[in-house]
Amino acid sequence: MLEFDDDGARLIERVYRSPDVVEQRARSLALLAPQPGETILDVGSGPGFLLASLAEAVGTDGAVHGLDPSAPMNAVARGRTSRFPWVSVDEGDALALPYADATFDAAVSTQVYEYVRDIPAALAELRRVVRPGGRVLLLDTDWDSVVWHTADRALHRRIMAVWDEHLADPHLPCTLPGHLRRAGFRLTGRSIVPIFNPSYDPDSFSVLTIRTVGGYVRGRSGITDADVDAWAADLEARGAEDDYLFSINRYCFLGVAD
């Protein structure tokens, strides 16, 4: 699992500011369609960008709750949403939501459930706190979809195999529709949110993610500092030679609580 200290939280905040994730957030908001006066939960609210957008959408008659297990992330989120008194940021996780039954009109979670080891229990908790007829939107990545051009393919495969270990299920989108149905949600929409970086842009999702991946895999399963440095240098060299390409797919599922 990834753990975020203050530096890690700042890096994730920078990733969330990237044009790729800004576009993803806009797509998520359009699909969830938050309405004035609604009460909405963001499971795994991170640095709070989505919380701020939800707060603007529901207005002063609504309420938004963010939930995250990371204290540094929650501190960033509270700072970002301090101008919205109808936003609360709580510490906790998806397996034990600290809210009463049928509290929320809608719930959203982006890039979170792939980290959760007991999906049936987590989605049962989500169903418990969402009122009948309430909406949920879940977005997760299947890391089988990643395309990342490197010269040393063998080293790249080793690094990505170790990177998979930071997730409970790096391929969750394949089974998420069935999990949602069994938890009591009726699927009403499925869509794909691609991230495509055809050049080495320091502010792009993929280039910022090099630091996150390298920081996690370094020293694990035989991956050395030299391996990580060579991998990162190779990707930078692809950019310098106009030979860089990255793409990955996020999968978005919209449901209604039965």
Please provide a written account of the structure.
- The protein is α/β, with parallel strands linked by helices and 258 residues long.
- Helix 5 links the parallel strand 4 and strand 5.
- The model has no long low-confidence stretch (mean pLDDT 95).
Keywords:
258 residues, 8 strands, eight-stranded mixed β-sheet, 24% strand, alpha/beta
- Largest sheet: number of strands, sense, barrel closure: 8 strands, mixed
Radius of gyration: 19 Å
Helix/strand-derived class? Answer: alpha/beta
Mean pLDDT: 95
In angstroms, what separates the terminal alpha carbons?
Answer: 32 Å
Helix content: 40-55%
As an assembly, this protein is single chain
Number of strands: 8
Strand/helix succession: HHEHEHEEHEEHHEHHE
Number of helices: 9
